[in-house]
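not sure who needs this but someone in the group chat was asking about LCP family protein from Streptomyces marokkonensis so here u go. i didnt clean anything up, its just raw.
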Amino acid sequence: MSAENTPDPAIPGPGEPGPEEPRSPAPGRRGKGRRRRPRAKRRKALLVAAWTAAGVVVLGGTGAGVLFFKLNGNLSSVDIDQVLGTDRPERADNGSQNILVLGSDTRAGGNKELGGGTDDGTARSDTAMVVHVHKGHKKAGVVSIPRDTLIDRPECTDADGDEHPAADDVMFNSAYSTGGGSCAVKTVESISGLRMDHYLEVDFSGFQKLVDDLGGVDITTTEDIKDPDSHLDLPAGTHTLDGEQALGLVRTRHGVGDGSDLGRIQLQQAFVKALADQVKDIGLLGNPKKLYDIADTATKTVTTDSDLGSVNSLMSFVSGLKGIDASGMNMVTMPVRYDPADTNRVLVAQTKADQVWTALKNDKPIPGAATEGTASGGAKGVVNSTP
């Protein structure tokens, strides 16, 4: 095992401080001083619900007919390419694609009731995945980026043209709260060296309704999961989760394992696989009303890059991904290690992380050795998709 990695480098559960608090100094280390704050009760969005939301739009495309014209008005988009300009990694020429999928914890609108807290006009990307679609579009490598990873955020410009200076040693999720989707994309490109071809974002109120519209999602828990903060109480066994339960599952961090954010990522990844398997088996062609309800929710739930900002574009994009099921997804967490100055934060385990990003850049499978001993989070195997 690399010297820079320690086994099970999970974020402890007791704290969940804000996005840009300075770190407290470690002995012999000049620090900026970090106050430890009580954990804020936040509801988490399932980042990859955006991916699935896009997918259900295309399941019965011919059945919706002219109603797709109305659905176009539901979509929101951000012109990432125009904002970021040309100073970016080169696009891959090997037939692969990279998509950044984010979950937003905004308190606006219906999210305030679900998420609690104050609607202060800001939002953070508490969940993030880089989805690499391999050439041939039969397999995908998915890399979760922990929200509490300390990174150097590059200078970036938001969608309104406002410029934000670079910042060192800030939490990864601060990129989104600082400059929105375009700043998050630039930060991920800076970390990974990969060009993001597309961007998808989802908020958690839309995710909850989407799961309900789909009729729930089947999962099997191998242990009891109980977390009063997320209102989740699941005994070990097989369950069909409704939207509220699904939201509780993907945001819980105290109901399983060591209570870390990294443990929550493991739950999210397991749920995504269950959701992907279930979506492909839903029969919508014979039920135009249900098809439209799902498409209506899906298009209201996601924000995309401008290239995917119409239903036709989204359908064309997703139709190329229908060959990828749960068995074709290799889901990992970006290799990290504890920050010795603050155990509520993690640092990129650079050598192993480089192995992950290099493999994806070359359209190769992520090597198992790159993630061994990193970011287990103590929740692996707690949730499985139902056979």
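also The two ends are 34 Å apart (CA to CA). if thats useful
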